[in-house]
Each structure stands twice: as C-alpha cells, then as structure tokens.
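Q: How would the structure tokens look for this protein?
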Amino acid sequence: MVNRKNVTDWIHRAPCSSKLERIEAFISGYGYDLHRHDTYAIGRTLSGVQSFQYRGQERHSLPGGTIVLHPDEAHDGQAGTVDGFQYRMIYVEPALIQQILGGKPLPFIKSGISSDPRLYAATNALLQSMGSPIDTLEEDDAVFDLAHALSAVSGIVESRKTFDYRAAEKAREFIHSAIDRTITLDELAEQSGRDRWSLSRDFRLLFGTSPYRYLTMRRLDLVRSMLIQGESLVAAALIAGFVDQSHMTRHFSKTYGLSPSRWLKMQRVGLAIAP
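A: Here is the predicted structure in token form.
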C-alpha cells in the first residue's frame, strides 16, 4: 500500500453506479465535523486508526473490521494517530436494502463497528479497488449478500407494529419526481394513500429518516453531481431546489461535516492521486 503520510487530504470517487456511492480517502488529522447521512455508511479502514464519535462514545476502527454507521446517526471523523488513516466507504440507500428484505425494520449495528466475519465477507466485492467499476451483476449479488448479512448480524427483534411499505415507497418515489419544488406531508399522504402521521412514522422506520430529510439529501446529491461537473455553487443550489447558496451550504455542512468548497477541493486532489 502507498504511504500517504504528509500527503494532502483527498477523496477519490469510484466510477458511477446507479445503486450506491463508493469512495476511498486519506485523512491526515481532523477530517469531518459532526454530521449525518440518510444512507448506511459501510466501510473498512485500510491503514492507520480511524477515530470517530458515534452514539455518545469515541470509536476506533482498525484494519480488519467493518464500519456500519446507521442512517441519520451523527458522527465525525479524525485520525487516531499522527500517521493519518486511509479508508474505503460505500453509501447505501435504505430503500435498496428494503427492496431486498421486503419491508423489514432496518438492520442496526449498535456499536458502529463489527468484527463479524459475515459482514467482512459481504463487503469485500463492494469495497474492492475504486479504480474501476464493479460488474453490474456482481454488484447486485454483493448488495443482496450485504442486506442479508446486515439483517443476520444486527440481531434486532422485529417490531410488532404494523406498517405499510408500499405506501412509504410510493411517497419516496413521488419525492424523486418533485425534487425541485416544495412538497407537503399532506401531498405525500395523498400520493401514498396513507394518513400523514402514519406515513411519517413508516417512512422513518423503513428508510431511516424523515420525508423532509430525505428530500434534502436528494437535493444535496444533485448539488454534488453538478459541482463535480463544474457548476457554480449559486447555480447548483438554485437548480437543486434550495432557496439560495447559503441555504444549501448550511445543509451541506451539516450533512457531510465540511463545506462545499473543501469537499470539492478534496475531490480534485483525489482525482490527481488516483491511478
């Protein structure tokens, strides 16, 4: 493995996939402020000590384990030693896990780090080298294995409360169709055929976050895509449905733990370092 000591912090994004986002990164010191994603963040420390605050405790990931951060759980990130750390991470939407598990409560790994060999094996294909795309069928198989490994390792007893997966999925699909405009909970209820508060509860249970938070994250996905393509911060914010640049920047920083400008700089350094 290449020694990254004294190298500028960087992030390298794997070739695009329609199912998930894959990155490899190097952090020399303090990496990210406290933030949260609406996806699973699942990864592996390649070298060094990857330290982060998670559910009120400081965690330390070493090579050999599997990091599993639950959707919408706050965490930060920094190097545990002066040598920095290198890691790979995949970001998996809960909706994809739901499609495989058929509407069960989301698997939850309480500590955020697992030594279970089933999870380690299930993530091998998805955490392979970021330099080339994963074969489509291989990716589908790997995501299937990951969903079932998460379910097996989580050990959570399913709730007896009833919930409507189809209604929640209809609401989620409608959000994607109207990402650039204002959406109300009443509108989502009408589209899904479920009353507003039951829908809100079901959405959180099945997809790990609230409808508004989900909408905001999809807008931020669009912003990141446009920034990579060279769009300005102002234009990206407006096209994605934010009120203005400052509105977008506040949400971006809370979600990713760093400003849009720093995030974009790390992407560019990663592209220069990537093979």
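The longest helix spans residues 136-154.

The two ends are 13 Å apart (CA to CA).

Upvote if useful.
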